[in-house]
Amino acid sequence: MSTRKMPIPQHISQEAQEFLAPAVTTTENDPAPQSTEEWLAFVKASNASYAPFVEAITDSTEVTIEKTSIAGVTVRIITPKTLPDNKQDKILVNLHGGGYVMLGGDQSIMEAVGIALAGQFKVISVDYRMPPLHPFPAAVDDGLAVYQSLLKEYGAENIALFGASAGGGLSAAVTLKARDQGLPMPACLALNTPWSDLNKIGDSYFSNHGVDPTLSSYEGWLGHMAAIYAGEAGFDHPLVSPVYADYSPGFPPCILISGTRDLLLSCTVRLHRALREANIDAELHVFEAMWHGFMTMPEGQQANLETIHFFEKHFKL
Amino acid sequence: MSTRKMPIPQHISQEAQEFLAPAVTTTENDPAPQSTEEWLAFVKASNASYAPFVEAITDSTEVTIEKTSIAGVTVRIITPKTLPDNKQDKILVNLHGGGYVMLGGDQSIMEAVGIALAGQFKVISVDYRMPPLHPFPAAVDDGLAVYQSLLKEYGAENIALFGASAGGGLSAAVTLKARDQGLPMPACLALNTPWSDLNKIGDSYFSNHGVDPTLSSYEGWLGHMAAIYAGEAGFDHPLVSPVYADYSPGFPPCILISGTRDLLLSCTVRLHRALREANIDAELHVFEAMWHGFMTMPEGQQANLETIHFFEKHFKL
């Protein structure tokens, strides 16, 4: 498939211009791991590449990170050095990204620490079970078990879920399953570039192929991760691809964030429409020339501010 | 420039699938009119192509259309057959699209009638002056003159402005100029795929080149219309390209609508960000696989419902 050369805008941050400068290389021709052992080796190598960054965060004096378990699920509790009085009784639950396969273990804290620091919130990062050992619905079950346990401790109105990419889809899926079990709904959800359709359906899977510098194609790893996650449930299951879920009034307010170069732009706007057509309070933010998970850029700080503002509004702070 | 073949999604309406089926032809190699006479002939031919559609609307018993003038500006007042009691004192002002050059005269009513019928609102469609005879700021001055006159009759809180494409940019520009003159602000603005940057800046000018079936390229007519509209003011003037304007609290709430195949997707999301970064209440809706001005599709009805809902909310109906 051809890739399109997009000019780098001069009005975006210097950091973003530099990030976009190198040619995008797609993974479409990279052989995906085949066996369980190959997948585990793939994940191990991925985690190793993030280790220095994670160690720097862990050593920071700005947050404390406590590894523990809730309802049998491994979690890490991230507490910012300063936790304002009006946020002591609030809890954010993060379901990390990584294509339902990567970024577990110590690496699972990255998004959670970003939001904990930006918003001065306490965050529980869920180290949910993943393929190749644990396909769907293990991740949903783990997220739900943590949510259910927190309900007793905090109350639904003091809980918000958030996640990026696979973690965005998973945040929606956990909430849908909680609803279907009759549990009270959290205050709100923040879905950052949510992987709402594991099928290759959506304009941006095509338009941003070879354009998105971090998630450059569906071919290669992404489609293979979809397959080992969904397993027998298939891509059309509403808890696998929550764009196909039945939303109805009572589902919590959502914020959705993407960028014009995001491979999952269509996943994001399609989920926003699904929510709006069910009359759910859902706000959309699309950042010009930004890609899948641009949170370390100055534009990402703007996106995080929108998310924090949204949490504070729905927590009535 | 290469064009990208995008698959037609099966999840959009049948009407939209049929609209997208023919290959997109760009106007990039079409010679643009050069002289005043050539532009006037171009506009005349464009208007003639819409005439049967406009005549059908004019003959409809669902609306009455009265041509008159307000503050010296030609307008058409569109009144739906049923005007609910709680909307009698509300007025919508439409600034039509057409690249600041086309769709004036009898053709200017098309968007206004759509919203008048969908929302049962009375709409004043402004037939503002345009190039080649009247470049910027004539259009802004005409819109402002009508708004100023309506202020006395209705009060700012009962007025909303809306427009698509050039009319979206113009709605923002008129409001900015009103603000700078110290006039009270309207209740809200609806900006449908607003032409917020007349420069060729923005990812979607590239990504949707040859993809958008109705506005296929900046080259050809669009860039030339930008030039004859802006004239000496240039494309960076904040009332020509309102993405460059200074927004600040007090600017009215806005709804912005676009689609993933819209040549002006980036114009839309950039203006949304400009508003949000000034802390203006601004909501964004992006429709999957939809193009510039998809309002006649079933998805366009969904978009119009969002707009109507937004008007009713900000009119406190």
Largest interface, counted by CB within 8 Å of the partner chain's CB: A-B, 33 and 33 residues
Oligomer: homodimer
Main beta sheet of chain A: strand number and arrangement? 8 strands, mixed
Helicity range of chain A: 25-40%
Q: Strand order, main sheet of chain A: write it out.
A: 1-2-4-3-5-6-7-8
Tally of alpha and pi helices of chain A: 9
Q: What does this entry look like structurally?
A:
The structure is a homodimer of 317-residue chains. With 317 residues, chain A is α/β, with parallel strands linked by helices. The first copy, chain A, has one domain (37-314): 3-Layer(aba) Sandwich (Rossmann fold), CATH 3.40.50.1820. Chain A is built from nine helices and eight strands. Chain A has an eight-stranded mixed sheet with strand order 1-2-4-3-5-6-7-8, sandwiched between helices. In chain A, helix 8 links the parallel strand 7 and strand 8. In chain A, helix 4 packs across helix 5 (166-180). Chain A starts with 13 loop residues before the first helix and ends with a helix. The relative contact order of chain A is 0.15. Chain A binds chain B through residues 2, 4, 6-7, 9, 11, 201-204, 206-208, 211, 260-261, 265-266, 269-270, 272-273, 276-277, 283-289, 302, 306, and chain B through 2, 4, 6-7, 9, 11, 201-204, 206-208, 211, 260-261, 265-266, 269-270, 272-273, 276-277, 283-289, 302, 306.
